[in-house]
Amino acid sequence: MPSFRSSRLPRGLRITLLLSPAAVVIGVFFLGGVSQAVAQSFGYQPFLPDYHWSTDAYRAIWLDPAVRASLLITLRVSLASTVIAAVSGVAAALAIRGLRRGRGWVTGLFQVNLAVPHLVGALCMLLLLGQSGVIARLTLTAGLSTSPAAFPQLTGDRFGWGIIAEYAWKETPFVGIIALAALSRGVADLENAARVLGATQWQRRRHVTLPLLAPPVAAASVLVFAFAAGTYEVPYLLGRSYPATLSVVALQDYRDTDLSVRPQAMAVAVVITLLTTVLVIAYLALAKRLSGRPL
Amino acid sequence: MTRARRRLLATLAAGVLALTGCSSSAGDTPASSLDPPNWKSVLTAAKGQTVNWYMYGGDDTLNTFVNGYVADRLKKVGVSLNQVKVTDTGDAVNAVLGQKQAGKTAGGAVDAIWINGENFATGAQAKLWYCGWVKDLPNARYVDFTDPAVSSDFGVPVNGCESVWQQADSALVYNSGALSAADAGSVSSLFAWAKRHPGRFTYPALPDFTGSMAVRTILYDTIGGPRSLSGPFDEAKYAPAAAKLFARLTAIAPSLWRGGSTYPQSEDAVEKLYADGVIDAYYTYGPGAVADKVAKGQYPKTTREAVLSVGNIGNISSIAIPADAAHRAAALVLANLLQDPATQLALYQAEGIYPGIDLTRTSPPIRHAFAAIAPSPSVLPLAALLRNAQPELASGYVTRIDKDWKSAVLQK
Asked: Are strands B162-169 and B152-153 parallel, antiparallel or unpaired?
């Protein structure tokens, strides 16, 4: 932008001004929200006549069986959906790149569900996988199951299959698109060079393609994991009320009509935030190692 | 580096000030100038206002009634209605709480809430409500304020902080093709039937409003009625009653839907299970709405209702106005319209929702019109529902049962 470059504003101020709209949004809505949550988790409840600061909420959630059970299912669901999305996303990207004809058409079809909200995706899974869903009705008509209750529990189940299915369905194209973007012409040139030097197909995959794909796919996977660990609507619709994921437990506590439970809801929210922050730090360390240079 | 950072901080601070500075605009109705006993002044102030009415939005027939009949009648006095649907009334209370937390005392976004029970108690706990106006509504003359269900809400004194709208009586909805009338006669016979037909009965996971009522009905049956638990919460009375209740609930759990290993998350989910033929019976707070579902073909024609031998829990739900509501006058006009005998009759006709007002205080034509409405064979008549109506417990008991049910039943 020439007008900015030629302006007489000092460089530091110019950058500050350009960044300030984004910084204000982040400062007010993100930092403001997080600090409110932290304050309330330590008992700050100005709307109650007799509130006091304490760490009671953290002690309470540490002892709460609902929170303890939710750690396991949260990790299980997020990890499983991230692994499935990463593996099938990369596989799909490689397969699409290998297409000779109709590549644009297939790519378009592949990413069509990116525009579908998770809420709609979860409802679709419910209609598809539920015990009175489409698949259950088809098996019933075909005589494969005797009653709706005889169909395997895929939604509202203890393991979380329905939640994993929704995340995997929705996030596979997300990882796939990022992998496709990383598989640029430059990658093909490097692969060709390796082939000329005598590398087998497996060696080219192992030593050329995958190392180049690893940083962007790792970034996408961390996003998927953090998202799966933090969202509420999918596990609420497709999971159980117990054991439920951390986000659902936080909302159950938040909706408790007894206001003295509110700090516990905020404490769970703070735990989710810490979990996500740890993940991002782990990712930055991982990405640094994978790409061999700091980001 | 440090200079740039200081500058960045200054910019941020300016931005924050600018944002917070413009958020404290005044409300449309100066709250102090309104005088409910002078109803004309309320009507004048309400003209041109839009009332933002937060209410449970999961009932399609009721939504149609609200946006049709209610909105049309409000329009005649110059008030527009904006129905804000929530899945849980607690969300509306949280919205008001958030405003109070942010230091707002006027101009609040929530003008009226359809409310009762624990949510009303929550708002009372945080002093959210505008109070002392209830008897000033012109239509309050149709309300029986001596009725304990009107003067107190789940044990919390109303103190003129909410005005009566409708009455909810619970009932058991069942498929007469699967259960006989005798099976639906008492809690014991229902449980015996469930043992013979595992997986065909359930209730929503507490603290769902209806699930909570289902468990309290079983509690009443277990301890011989609510009398021994009347009055405010008392641990000494509660503990032995709860022990008996949870022993009975864990004993029946293996015969419930999915072996009692989980419970549906909401009453909507339970109704869907019934509509899909997965279960054959469930508890409801809205027995009148069942006729509509049978007529639309969502429920089997053999659907019937029963009041178990223990009786049925009933309560009254109301309209509360937050103290910081921007359109207080319009909210008062809405609360008054909802108590109008003609509105109550139209609501009963549209959805079989029972009147919150005292019918003996209404004019003979209104009483005759109520009596003339023949309910569908699937629905219990008003008299049958009222014969053995049981009061609610104090909200202290309700909250404790909701909480203890989780550890004693759900997490087993």
From this structure: unpaired
Residue B294, helix vs strand vs coil? helix
Question: In this structure, are strands B281-284 and B171-175 parallel, antiparallel, or unpaired?
Answer: antiparallel
User: Does pLDDT of B174 surpass 90?
Assistant: yes
Amino acid at B84: V
DSSP B137-163: SGGGGGS-TTSHHHHEETTEE-TTSEE
What is the distance between the alpha carbons of residues B110 and B51, in angstroms, rounded to a whole number? 8
Residue B228 touches chain A, beta carbons under 8 Å: no
pLDDT for B15 beyond 80: no
Cα nearest neighbour of B96 on chain A: A47
Both tokens of A96, joined, read: 């699409």
CB-closest option in B3, B121, B276 to A148: B276
- Residue B359, judged by CB atoms within 10 A of its CB (0-12, 13-18, 19+), counts as middle
| pLDDT tens track for A232-285 | 899 999 998 888 999 999 998 888 877 888 899 999 999 998 988 888 888 778
Q: Are A140 and A255 in contact (CB under 8 A)?
A: no
- Cβ within 8 Å, pair B4-A23: no
Indicate yes or no: CB of B278 within 8 angstroms of CB of A149. Answer: yes
Q: Which residues of B touch A12 (CB under 8 A)?
A: 3-4, 7
Distance between CA atoms of B138 and B144, rounded to whole angstroms? 14
pLDDT above 70: residue B30: no
Residue-wise pLDDT for B87-133, tens only, equals 888 889 999 998 888 888 888 999 999 998 889 998 998 899 999 99
Residues of chain A with pLDDT under 50: 1-2, 4, 293-295
**Angstrom distance (rounded) from CA B205 to CA B266:** 7
| Mean pLDDT over the full length of chain B | 87
Q: How many CB pairs under 8 A join A and B?
A: 99
Tell me the shortest Cα–Cα distance from B63 to chain A, in angstroms: 22
Q: Which residues of A touch B (CB under 8 A)?
A: 12-13, 15-17, 19-20, 23-24, 27-28, 46-49, 65-66, 69, 131-132, 148-149, 153, 156, 158, 236, 240-242, 254-259
Terminal Cα distance for chain B, rounded: 58
pLDDT at B65: 93
B304 phi, psi to nearest 5 deg: -135, 170
B312 φ, ψ (degrees, to nearest 5): -125, 140
pTM of full prediction above 0.90:
no
Mutate to test the interface with B, among A13, A30, A45, A241 (most CBs of B within 10 A): A241
Amino acid at B40: K
Query: Are A148 and B263 a contacting pair at CB < 8 A?
Result: no
Distance from C-alpha of B137 to C-alpha of B286, rounded to nearest angstrom? 27
**A19 contact residues in B (CB cutoff 8 A):** 8
Say which amino acid occupies A50. D
Min CA distance, A4 vs chain B (Å)? 18
**Does B23 lie at the interface with A, CB-CB under 8 angstroms?**
no
Interface test with A, best of B203, B209, B410, B412 (most A CBs within 10 A): B410
Residue showing tokens 């999918």: A234
A77: nearest Cα among A214, A217, A232: A232
- Work out the number of other CB atoms within 10 angstroms of the CB of residue B202: 27
* Sign of the CA dihedral with B361 first, then B365, B368, and B370 last: negative
- As beta bridge partners, residue B157 has B152
CB-CB neighbours of B254 under 10 Å: 13
